Amino acid sequence: MDRKALFDQAVAFITSVHQVTYEMTKDFALGDITPVQYGILEYIAVAQPVTLSQVSDCKHISMPNTSRELKKLTDRGLCEKFDAPDDKRKQYIRLSPDGQAFMNAAFGHMEGQFRMRLATATEEQLEQLSAAMGVLQASLFSEKS
Amino acid sequence: MDRKALFDQAVAFITSVHQVTYEMTKDFALGDITPVQYGILEYIAVAQPVTLSQVSDCKHISMPNTSRELKKLTDRGLCEKFDAPDDKRKQYIRLSPDGQAFMNAAFGHMEGQFRMRLATATEEQLEQLSAAMGVLQASLFSEKS
DNA sequence: TTGTTTGATTATCAAATGATAACTAAAGAG
DNA sequence: CTCTTTAGTTATCATTTGATAATCAAACAA
Fold first, then answer.
1. Who among B11, B114, B139 is closest to A10 (CB)?
2. Which residue range or ranges hold the HTH marR-type domain (chains A, B) (predicted)?
3. Which residues are within 8 A (CB) of B115 and not within 5 positions of it... i.e. 6 or more apart?
């Protein structure tokens, strides 16, 4: 198989994923939440409870900046910090009820877009889709390295 | 098929794609080119020649800001503007030789990462991969809407 | 115990990005 | 020929984001 052609296909594919992700999320009102803050909330939503260091590592934001943004978010009542029982240096973070509601709305919006895109798909096509994502995530887009 | 589960899988998948894309590109030296500027160059590379308006539309940057960033890039000798023969209002943009060299290096780096990830894959797996990307791009990540 | 590492905070600064208004010139519509 | 729209530019401003230094307390290692 032609690896160069496969690479070109992968570039086009990645571009499409980014493009479609943008289109599926752009018309959700962030209010006064900045894109970076939204990314943090999204990460907390799927991984909570998390420490500040985890947010810093996973979202590639320096600790001082992570601390700053997270302070803003807690001040706005979207998430809560609580001490780790084992290590008094650590702080865990989770979404507050307001934060949960916000993220539920965000994910709900995304899911709506998602369903629209797949509205006309047959059962068989959905199975194919799931299988295709499985294949890709097991190989090209695995995060083990 | 459970659509909610499929949605969750899609969210995880999209996250992985973004994550891996970041990891494949992060250690390429941008020099004094900013991320937004890099995105513009990448777009020009695959779509050249393009007008300013096209860049603005596709990269979701307002015309004034597109004009500003493109001016910086042409000043640095990475791309060139030339008048459209048919419409004197339009300006086409293409990469300069330096810009081409830069983007060749960038794509070369990405391709290296890409090959590393697929180094142990069998011929059959590569075929599967290509097919999987085809399936996804034809359904979930099509950009027709 | 002393020194070092880790987790987090605050303060400050610089740079990148986004937004808006005002403007020019060419093209197109009536 | 006007009027409007399109393509692009310049200038300016606010905000967001990234980067760095200095600090603190707890944990850990010698």
1. B114
2. 1-138
3. A3, A7
